[in-house]
Amino acid sequence: MNGHDLGSVSFLAHDIFKSWGKIKKYGPYDIIVIDPPSFQKGSFALTKDYKKILRRLGDLMAEGGEVMACVNSPTVTPNFLIESMAEEASQLTFVERLDNPAEFADIDPEASLKVLLFK
């Protein structure tokens, strides 16, 4: 739907915590999108597990790669992502927060969907 040449794009549907080896084998990656489920009890603890993913970025990214870090929990602010990235993947720097589409409008921008770009 977005016009990508599917012959040059790969989509991997893996449980990241059980498939580090498989995921790393296909890398390194030019862009990594981190978009965990917000409301999946028992399978993803946002503040703990998000940092586990960030710690592994160095093993997965190509030189000059980018990360699009997303979180849709109203309980964390954009600073959670910025500070966690600085702690766990200090080779990356915050570039910008992307604007949300109208469907994700919220009375409190700090509680709404957060999509941040890092390079």
Automatic annotation (TrEMBL):
GO terms for molecular function: methyltransferase activity. GO terms for biological process: methylation. InterPro entries: SAM-dep_methyl-trfase (IPR019614), SAM-dependent_MTases_sf (IPR029063). The keyword Chloroplast does not apply. Residues 1-119 form the S-adenosylmethionine-dependent methyltransferase domain. Keywords: Methyltransferase, rRNA processing, S-adenosyl-L-methionine, Transferase. The keyword S-adenosyl-L-methionine applies. PANTHER family: RIBOSOMAL RNA LARGE SUBUNIT METHYLTRANSFERASE YWBD-RELATED, SAM-DEPENDENT METHYLTRANSFERASE. This is Methyltransferase. It comes from Vibrio variabilis.
